[in-house]
């Protein structure tokens, strides 16, 4: 029998805007144990509405409000499915951490915005909801991202230096020192993960993603284009740093193509191969010679995993399904919030100090 109040749910919908990962976990003094996981893809119409709000300049309040309500219902549906499939007793669930859907990330301007309706989720599910994890870190002068390195440190630290790489819409790395070492954990966004790959592939095929990276693997890397992409100031900037679609979007890609005189002449599959090389190169530069443990949607991209080389393995070898890591992190952050414990790492985000992250919506 599970003890009351030790089960936390975590929901994550990332920059790729492909759907919701929901994870149930028992979190107590012995550690974190996964109890169940469901993935619910966004309906096509909801995904289109989310992506339209990620386009800089599309700031209509009415549209954002309508999408946030639709997301709230989608999150509640995911929670109910998870409870049913994992056969959880509702009274044992302490809280659910709901990240929300990022549509703007502007820490340099003092804000980050994740669409969500946590009050609606609490009302529909009858559960305590913890949401709005990023804004307190931003208010303390931090990037508000990435937040997962603290969780990575809690569950993935080992006897040797390690790098945990999450490849979602954006890619981020956590550089873990060996257990017991005095060095700080370092983490930051390396740049685009899947977002430009998905965007380019969908524009040329009508399908949402390049399954297994097969189309990229059929192309050849365009050296001058890759060099132009890597010349973007973001890649040379020191951490703390985070980024999003506000920087790496279709307009950014088009500028790179124009600068190289390739806007009408580059074979599309070669551009795809170059975008994959951009993701791999930026990760490899950031992680040095450490073993790489990869999570997120990028694990399913065989061409990307091959480009990351023999050092790259799925986090499954460490006992955590790569598709569950981020959602688990927000279950863990919800527990930290209710316990009054800091959830950020100031050395990662650049915040003025440790902060308790999240706003609580009681059941």
Task: Please outline the helices and strands.
Blueprint: E1 7-13, E2 19-28, E3 31-41, H1 44-53, H2 61-85, E4 93-106, E5 111-115, H3 118-125, E6 129-131, H4 135-139, H5 148-156, E7 162-167, E8 170-176, E9 186-192, H6 195-205, H7 214-218, H8 223-230, H9 233-236, H10 250-259, H11 268-287, E10 292-295, H12 302-308, E11 312-314, H13 325-338, H14 346-349, E12 359-361
Parallel strand pairs: 1-4, 4-6, 7-10, 10-11
Antiparallel strand pairs: 1-2, 2-3, 4-5, 6-12, 7-8, 8-9
What labels describe this entry?
Nucleotidyltransferase, domain 5; 363 residues; seven-stranded mixed β-sheet; 12 strands; five-stranded mixed β-sheet; single chain; alpha/beta
What kind of sheet is the major sheet? 7 strands, mixed
The quaternary organization reads as single chain
Q: How would you sum up the global shape?
A: globular
Number of strands: 12
User: How far apart are the termini?
Assistant: 23 Å
Corresponding CATH superfamily of the largest domain: ATPase, nucleotide binding domain
Q: In terms of per-residue confidence, which ranges show pLDDT below 50 for 5 or more consecutive residues? A: none
CATH class group of the largest domain: Alpha Beta
| Structural domain count | 2
Tell me roughly what share of residues is in helical segments. 25-40%
Any idea what the CATH architecture of the largest domain is? 2-Layer Sandwich
Structural class from helices and strands? alpha/beta
């Amino acid at each position: 029998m599970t003890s009351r109040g030790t089960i936390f749910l975590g929901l994550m919908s990332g920059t790729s805007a492909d759907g919701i990962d929901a994870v149930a976990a028992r979190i107590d003094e012995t550690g974190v144990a996964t109890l169940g996981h469901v993935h619910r893809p966004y309906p096509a119409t909801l995904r289109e509405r989310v992506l339209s709000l990620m386009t800089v300049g599309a700031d209509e309040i009415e549209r954002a409000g309508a999408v946030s309500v639709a997301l709230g219902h989608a999150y509640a549906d995911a929670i109910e499915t998870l409870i049913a499939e994992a056969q959880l007793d509702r009274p044992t669930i302490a809280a659910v951490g709901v990240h929300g859907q990022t549509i703007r990330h502007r820490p340099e301007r003092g804000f980050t915005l994740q669409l969500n309706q946590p009050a609606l989720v609490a009302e529909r599910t009858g559960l305590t909801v913890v949401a709005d994890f990023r804004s307190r870190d931003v208010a303390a002068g931090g990037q508000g991202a990435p937040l997962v390195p603290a969780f990575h440190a809690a569950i993935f630290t080992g006897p040797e230096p390690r790098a945990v790489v999450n490849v979602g819409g954006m890619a981020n790395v956590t550089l873990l020192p060996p257990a017991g070492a005095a060095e700080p954990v370092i983490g930051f966004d390396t740049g685009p993960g899947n977002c430009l790959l998905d965007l380019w592939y969908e524009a040329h095929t009508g399908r949402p993603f390049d399954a297994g990276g097969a189309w990229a693997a059929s192309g050849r890397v365009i050296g001058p284009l890759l060099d132009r992409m890597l010349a973007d100031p973001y890649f040379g900037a020191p951490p703390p740093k985070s980024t999003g679609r506000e920087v790496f979007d279709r307009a950014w890609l088009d500028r790179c193509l124009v600068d190289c005189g390739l806007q009408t002449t580059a074979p599309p599959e070669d551009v795809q191969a170059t975008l994959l090389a951009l993701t791999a190169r930026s990760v490899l530069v950031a992680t040095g010679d450490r073993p790489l443990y990869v999570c997120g949607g990028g694990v399913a991209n065989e061409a990307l995993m091959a480009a990351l080389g023999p050092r790259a393995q799925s986090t499954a070898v460490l006992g955590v399904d790569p598709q569950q890591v981020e959602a688990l992190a927000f279950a863990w952050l919800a527990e930290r919030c209710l316990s009054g414990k800091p959830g950020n790492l100031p050395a990662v985000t650049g915040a003025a100090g440790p902060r308790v992250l999240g706003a609580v919506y009681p059941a």
